[in-house]
Amino acid sequence: MQDTRMWTGLANSLFIAACVIVIAMLRGLAGALLITRLQSRVTGLLYTIMVSPILTPGIIVGISTTIFWRDLGVGGGFFTAILAQSTFISSFAMLMFMARLQRQDISLEEAALDLGATHAPKHSDASPSHSSSRQSPLPL
Question: How far apart are CA 112 and CA 136, in angstroms?
Answer without folding.
Answer: 11
